Amino acid sequence: MAKVVCFGEIMLRLTAEMGVRLNQAEQLAVYYGGGEANVAISLANYGHQVAYASKVADNALGQAAENHLRSYGVSTEPLLKGSGRLGTYYVEQGVGQKATKVVYDRQGSAFASMAELEWALLELFAGVDVFHVSGITPALSEAWREWTIQLMQAAKTAGCKVSFDSNYRQTLWSQEEAGKFLQTALPYVDYCSAGRLDAIHLLGIEETTADVSDYYQLMHQRFPNIQVFFSTNRVVHSTSVNELQGTLWSNGETYTAKPYLIDPIVDRIGGGDAFTGAILHGLLSQKVPHETIEFATAAAVLKHFVKGDCNQFNEAEVLAFMQSDSAKIHR
Amino acid sequence: MAKVVCFGEIMLRLTAEMGVRLNQAEQLAVYYGGGEANVAISLANYGHQVAYASKVADNALGQAAENHLRSYGVSTEPLLKGSGRLGTYYVEQGVGQKATKVVYDRQGSAFASMAELEWALLELFAGVDVFHVSGITPALSEAWREWTIQLMQAAKTAGCKVSFDSNYRQTLWSQEEAGKFLQTALPYVDYCSAGRLDAIHLLGIEETTADVSDYYQLMHQRFPNIQVFFSTNRVVHSTSVNELQGTLWSNGETYTAKPYLIDPIVDRIGGGDAFTGAILHGLLSQKVPHETIEFATAAAVLKHFVKGDCNQFNEAEVLAFMQSDSAKIHR
Amino acid sequence: MAKVVCFGEIMLRLTAEMGVRLNQAEQLAVYYGGGEANVAISLANYGHQVAYASKVADNALGQAAENHLRSYGVSTEPLLKGSGRLGTYYVEQGVGQKATKVVYDRQGSAFASMAELEWALLELFAGVDVFHVSGITPALSEAWREWTIQLMQAAKTAGCKVSFDSNYRQTLWSQEEAGKFLQTALPYVDYCSAGRLDAIHLLGIEETTADVSDYYQLMHQRFPNIQVFFSTNRVVHSTSVNELQGTLWSNGETYTAKPYLIDPIVDRIGGGDAFTGAILHGLLSQKVPHETIEFATAAAVLKHFVKGDCNQFNEAEVLAFMQSDSAKIHR
Amino acid sequence: MAKVVCFGEIMLRLTAEMGVRLNQAEQLAVYYGGGEANVAISLANYGHQVAYASKVADNALGQAAENHLRSYGVSTEPLLKGSGRLGTYYVEQGVGQKATKVVYDRQGSAFASMAELEWALLELFAGVDVFHVSGITPALSEAWREWTIQLMQAAKTAGCKVSFDSNYRQTLWSQEEAGKFLQTALPYVDYCSAGRLDAIHLLGIEETTADVSDYYQLMHQRFPNIQVFFSTNRVVHSTSVNELQGTLWSNGETYTAKPYLIDPIVDRIGGGDAFTGAILHGLLSQKVPHETIEFATAAAVLKHFVKGDCNQFNEAEVLAFMQSDSAKIHR
Amino acid sequence: MAKVVCFGEIMLRLTAEMGVRLNQAEQLAVYYGGGEANVAISLANYGHQVAYASKVADNALGQAAENHLRSYGVSTEPLLKGSGRLGTYYVEQGVGQKATKVVYDRQGSAFASMAELEWALLELFAGVDVFHVSGITPALSEAWREWTIQLMQAAKTAGCKVSFDSNYRQTLWSQEEAGKFLQTALPYVDYCSAGRLDAIHLLGIEETTADVSDYYQLMHQRFPNIQVFFSTNRVVHSTSVNELQGTLWSNGETYTAKPYLIDPIVDRIGGGDAFTGAILHGLLSQKVPHETIEFATAAAVLKHFVKGDCNQFNEAEVLAFMQSDSAKIHR
Amino acid sequence: MAKVVCFGEIMLRLTAEMGVRLNQAEQLAVYYGGGEANVAISLANYGHQVAYASKVADNALGQAAENHLRSYGVSTEPLLKGSGRLGTYYVEQGVGQKATKVVYDRQGSAFASMAELEWALLELFAGVDVFHVSGITPALSEAWREWTIQLMQAAKTAGCKVSFDSNYRQTLWSQEEAGKFLQTALPYVDYCSAGRLDAIHLLGIEETTADVSDYYQLMHQRFPNIQVFFSTNRVVHSTSVNELQGTLWSNGETYTAKPYLIDPIVDRIGGGDAFTGAILHGLLSQKVPHETIEFATAAAVLKHFVKGDCNQFNEAEVLAFMQSDSAKIHR
After folding, report:
1. How distant is the Cα of F174 from the closest Cα of chain E, in angstroms?
2. For residue E61, what are the domain limits?
3. Which of A259, C263, E61, F264 has an alpha carbon within 20 to 30 A of B52's alpha carbon?
4. Cα dihedral sign for F179, F180, F185, F187?
5. Which residue of F has its CA nearest to D241?
6. Of all helices (H) and strands (E), which one includes residue F89?
7. Taking CB atoms and an 8 Å limit, are F18 and D301 in contact across chains?
8. A241 has a chain C CB within 8 A of its CB
9. Are C135 and C166 in contact (CB under 8 A)?
10. What ipTM was predicted for this assembly?
């Protein structure tokens, strides 16, 4: 099994019960999650040796985030604690035709307000196979943009593969800022989760077709160091019903998984991270591309049927799901 | 913003969790609601100055009903308290092909058993733009039929528009009783929520067509004082899946909204009141009829996705729902 | 109304909330059930005089199982208590495309580990019209295979009809073991719940057609004592959406009910038992076969909309469901 | 074991969580209970054959009351169902120095508004050893006063002992009305739960001493047919902390149990009924008076530690409680 | 009834269930509160016309805070909404010998980060009898110290009485900062909630005695404008058991209420605010000092028995509590 | 920090809510625990490097037990998974004078039914400072008695200290069996949790005094290899109120901590394990005996205020508790 370091912010998520508006809620369910943390948990579930590097508040909430990660077997050795708060977000769950609504409350977190990169990078990446980070981290500040590049450079120096999930969030930075960062960062990237819209709006590739594989080809021309591109195509029938289909580009070839209907969705948050985690597992365990993309799509779909941000299924369970007709009672 | 008085009974609703029969329930969720109270809350959410006139039990449950109204900004100045109980109803929520079942327990309520109209009507309607009442109030007793007429007369005298929602309930009175009342009441009405079945069964208009606009035309001929008619057409696929489409008749023209699929329904109770409240908002804020009916249909649909009897969305949220593709996560 | 004895194990069921994996659950909902116990409750709900014969742990959990049965009016006079545990199973509810997962923990139960048949059989069957047992009991052990035959023999001697639900569970015994038992047991059976797969895999009838009535004809030729066969055909669209249609074979004729869509399913466990209970009710109350199969299919469908293992509807409610368009609010 | 008929109203109790005011509650816990129903359940728990005669609403709530009784093994053969509501009461639980507050909502119940005694009294009392009724039933109406006398007369005629719990409630009738009824009823009574205040305020016995045994002596002089008097003395330190001590008068002797501290109280409602039920058990099972009063006091104390109106302990558990030092973990 | 303006921050409080550590909690209960908001609600409960001036986040949480205030009848006309977050704090409830632990997360709130006083002060105080503010507001920033003085000055100019609760919090500012502020602010104050420790540590009065009345005398000498001082003395036996006794100084006289035992405490937070609210009610309704201090102590004690930050009892309920032996069931 | 291996069974605990009897419970709270697992978690909380060696069911419940351990940072490398069930126990929580009742259901667990010691002992103890096991493991079977000795021998060979908690459970083995085992095992033990009753009933030391230190002296004479003895003295006022005081014997001296009142107890289970864990921490971190026993007593007391089997406080929190007056709100 491989050794992986995931890096990014982990937040507290407070969720009102389905059918209850946030401003009416008398109880909020507590989850902890973040894009890279969710990927870390997926990889630990698949048997890899994963460490999560981040910084959390030195209080009960930061401790809870650590407990959450550890419960899945993720090492929290590089998880720092210090002053500042734990970034928080509130979720009013959508259902049917009503969209899910998120209220972010992440300013001033211990992670976002770090004054310097506090890890010993040589040590952090020693013996590590893959370093995973997402576009949310550089979106936090100008400093984090620089530090993200430093991290990628250190990882490459240590012989790590670099996995990057573009994960563009318009509330955090502009397309211009993101595009500028990508130009600097992508030369260090080996595995890249990005889609058609990223190509067009962040990298300025001209919109000529709906076929994502064409864009991957063009992105590969610009950044020949990137060996693998991947993304999901989501057809949104309603908040409760989606279709999902994964695509993987590798070595000039595009592999598309069979599409899944997800009906009804229990909790969509983290679906993309479950996909990324499973893609990385496919790459790290030498699955062939076709198996990898089928596995990753199934893993992403399964995530939608459990509450909380992270994938909670191991490899055997994902494989069983792929092979089952998936609606029998398993006695 | 306009000044509105809504008038009617407010009740305690006790609801078993979905999938649990009333006779098995160990916990019941508590809501407060009533047709006119729900309209009052909708209008307060849209920014109007709304007072709710009713009478509740002078005990903790009556106090809870008042707290409920006030939390939405509805004035409870004309909410009286006195002896008697708070009308109650129990809901066993349907799901899928199983219907929702309601057990009424409303006899002997403080409102239904009032001995006289206890409000100073001149004061109640001073400066008020619209007076809203529904057919449930006159259905309670012979006395309430008289008092409802007196209220309408006083409202008209004070220069108020009168809004009336027919809301026929066969368990409370016969079609004959209701029809007789309508003949007396409708001459005072400006805005009327009624549908094809009301026209046929309560007003005795001959059934000749399925087109509600024809009936509105005929009703308008009988009661030329009524400026606006409105109703929803609901196609029931199952308890969990409905289609809803609103119709508004104004000034000889019929306006029909785009139909909405509601799948799955979280709580259907109060959907009609959300529609009426939004229609009145359209009329009070001088929206054009087309906008009014689209807004009202959307507001009614949204209500189905939250628990409890009343609409909990403000104007901006309803408008956003109309414009969204309504199933994205709003980050 | 008829007098019925149902016989078999009753177990504790612990269920995680939908969307929560068993290994994450901090709360488990408690139900009690078992195939024959569920049939007993159905028949008591329909007004029959039903006794449940079993053995449970002489502790709080055994007492809870007894309370459960009694609450529906089932007599627990022949319910023994003694050492050993109460068989238990854990349910992770599926939803959408994710299957339901059951973890069995039933070894060493007071029932399964009985050393002898502890009932006075003459007394047990005195005046009883129907004795109902299922294939789960003989699957428990070699001893239980013998005892099941003894029970059937005693019942026949006492003039009881014998009802048998094949209920094959591959985790308990092999097809060979089950087939061998059936050869010995079926000659005592009057009413038999079994399907096409039972005929092929347990009775070794050659697979030639998909039509269950052909198999019933062949089974009847082998066991002419069996007057009635019945089963449901379930089309599984997903864990949340099934179609269900019942078939009854009687006197050489096959009767098929109208199919029902079940969307969404709240709790599928016990659906088959609700079907069997309702078939027995039809037989015991002299309904014509057509009515019996329609009633039983509707009863089975209704069970899917309530939590817990047993049917919770009485005859009037099932009939109302059959006649309703089943999605109106019943005020 | 003896055969007992308990008679009276059973009600729905809705309780807010401790620390939550009724007017703030969003969830209410559901219990069913009533003085005589609680006694019935106690006696069934102790192994007697108990039937409960009452009338409940013919709806889901009445059905729930029946399920509740049956779950403890109480026969509901003489439990009628019909129109009217189920009497209800709401409980705001006190704690510490804050008192518990009850909101009654029992008017118009199916029981209270019966038009005639609907039971065949000969049949009701055939073979019955004890008939138990309380002062709440005659307090409901003038008609119920007459019917209660008729029931007592019929019971005596059938050879039943009559057990009566005075249970005076000032919100239901005046001391004068209650006193007048007692004069007529007590001549039929064999076992009487009443205390010093009943003697003084209802029977007009002069207040001369604090010693309840003197009053029992005087009451016995007036009603020499009464063989046994009993009551508890409760010292209220706070809502959460009480002391309880039972007294039994029999055959001219007064027996007083050891006092118990109850700290903290979980649910006080039904403590007196648990006491009465255990006294009757002592009488019916020929315990000596000393054992009876110790048993009954312990049973009453135990009730305070469980939620809901009724005693949930069997004889062995009460005896174990009496002998234990009562605070060890029983592994 | 008087007209009151309360001013200060209102926060979201998230509380883990008793016995569950914050870092283990999977559910958090939601309350809204703040010192001055709690006082506002108390005064509204007592029938005064109260407005709450503050600024909250323009999101669902800010809306919830507004709903909370309105539900008690507090006017939110001067409640502003804008960018920034809603201050939050997390509570791990203590019990027995374990202390309650609070994790504050209030930085960057919409209120704390206001750039200027956004209210029209003339309008805010027009016709107002009392302006209430606490020491938490000036503790937020240097700017808020200035603005608090401006508010007091404007209030005095408008003819308002100024009520000030010192409410010193060492995590927000130093004793020096607080003392300096008090020197500037107290000359505007009419009613002052402060205690012995405030006198010694904030005002630099020499510690010579344990008797709070001596300190009040000395404080009055320094600030002769202050007509009334008040505070509670709390004896902490454990987190679950406290004794509370209020003291009021008025016109040279000290009035001390009878002490109350509070056992067990349900929720201590807001006890002091309930005291202040009740003192102001006594002053505004011309109770004599003796009655005022008894009323306020009782009101403060009652608060400890309900969950949430604010007093939920009206005047009649507080008076009933004072006169009751406070542990009877009130049927 | 030290390296520790704890060894023993871990079980599923299902607990009814306080005030609800097991046979009435509709929900059970889920915890995982066991004597040695609880000690492991305590030591991990205090910063040691702890591994837990056990065997659990290879199903969702075994996985949950692993997640539980990992969440506290305990390594589960030596946690095996295999066939068999997870031992289970059900808890009906006592309160006040009602005792807590435990229903064990642990037969046939994967751990108890192991066929051989499956760990490579050399590897298991490599570099380990302390090996901790309790008397529950040898109580499971004759085989486990042998294996426990083998484990102790291997630990000693590897240079480990052996910690043993006698933890006598009469439902698992007789005093004779336990005594015989102790004679064989204690020669390998360095740190021994045992009390006066163990000395008298298991080791046959004559009862001459109530002073535990005398027995420690005598036990030390028999087993001079044991360096440290420790135990708590618990005074049980009621299920809700206990006093606790720890004693430590070391090097011929007895150290007794200050006694603590625990009022009210939230969850007593695991209190002894919290004590043992904290004693080991004291020994491993070279605290002086006086500090160790004070720390351990405080840690044991704190455990009683949180739900679940394990201590959830770190060293700083225990120290803060010792120094606090322990009932202030910590803002």
Report:
1. 36
2. 3-118+128-323
3. E61
4. positive
5. F96
6. strand F88-92
7. no
8. no
9. yes
10. 0.96
Beta carbons of E248 and E279 less than 8 angstroms apart: yes
Question: Does any CB of chain D come closer than 8 Å to the CB of residue F104?
Answer: yes
Longest CA span, chain F: 54
For residue C244, the chain A residues in CB contact (below 8 A) are none
Nearest-CA neighbor of B52 among B20, B83, B67, B74?
B74
Does residue C331 lie in a domain region?
Answer: no
**Inter-residue contact F81 to F313 (CB < 8 Å):** no
User: How many domains in chain F?
Assistant: 1
How far CA A123 is from CA of A9, A133, B318, E196, in Å, comes to 20, 17, 53, 56
Chain-centre distance of CA E80, in angstroms?
20
Distance CA E31, CA E14 (A): 6
A183 neighbors A219 (Cβ within 8 angstroms): no
10 Å Cβ neighbour count for B204? 11
Q: Determine the angle formed by the axes of helices B289-303 and B315-323, rounding to 10 degrees.
A: 90
Asked if residues C92 and A330 have their Cβ atoms less than 8 Å apart, the reply is: no
Query: Domain of D166: which CATH number?
Result: 3.40.1190.20
Beta-carbon separation of F264 and D264 below 8 A: yes
DSSP-derived pairing of the beta strands D130-134 and D161-165: parallel
| Token pair belonging to F282 | 């004291």
Q: How far is B286 from B79, CA to CA, in rounded Å? A: 29
Residue corresponding to tokens 């003894």: C150
Question: How crowded is residue B214: how many other Cβ atoms within 10 Å of its Cβ?
Answer: 15
Q: What is the pLDDT of residues B121-169, one digit of tens each?
A: 999 999 999 999 999 999 999 999 999 999 999 999 999 999 999 999 9
Which of D239, D244, D258, D263 is best to mutate for the F interface (most F CBs within 10 A)?
D263
Q: From the CB of residue F43, how many other CB atoms can be counted at a distance below 10 Å?
A: 29
Name the amino acid, one letter, at C259.
Answer: P
Q: Cα–Cα–Cα angle for E101, E102, E107, nearest 5°?
A: 160
Instruction: Report yes or no on E8 lying in a domain.
Output: yes
Q: What is the pLDDT of residues C215-270, one digit of tens each?
A: 999 999 999 999 999 999 999 999 999 999 999 999 999 999 999 999 999 999 99
Token digits of residue C328: 């109106």
Distance CA E169, CA E177 (A): 11
Residues of C in contact with F105 (CB under 8 A): 85-86, 88
E307 touches chain A (CB under 8 A): no
D123 occurs within a structural domain: no
Find, among C69, C53, C7, C56, the residue nearest to C310 by Cα.
C69
Find all residues with CB under 8 Å of E31, minimum gap 6, and list them: E12, E13, E15, E307, E308, E309
- Give residue-wise pLDDT tens across range A281-321: 999 999 999 999 999 999 999 999 999 999 999 999 999 99
How large is the average pLDDT for residues E67-78? 98
- b or e along F239-253 (b: 16 or more beta carbons within 10 Å of the residue's beta carbon)? bbbbebbbbbbbeee
- Asked if residue B57 is part of any domain, the answer here is yes
Question: How close is the nearest chain C Cα to the Cα of F119, in Å?
Answer: 25
Which residue among C98, C171, C264 places its CB closest to the CB of A326? C98
Residue type, C314: N
Q: Which of C26, C7, C31 is nearest to C266 (CA)?
A: C31
Closest by alpha carbon to D37, among D110, D166, D132, D153? Answer: D132
Residues of D in contact with C65 (CB under 8 A): none
E strand intervals along A148-259: 161-165, 191-193, 228-236, 242-250, 253-256
Question: Half-sphere exposure of residue A52, counting CA atoms within 13 Å on the CB side?
Answer: 32
**Is the CB of D107 inside 8 Å of chain C's CB atoms?**
no
Q: How far apart are CA C102 and CA A305, in angstroms?
A: 17
Cβ proximity of B130 and B280 under 8 Å = yes
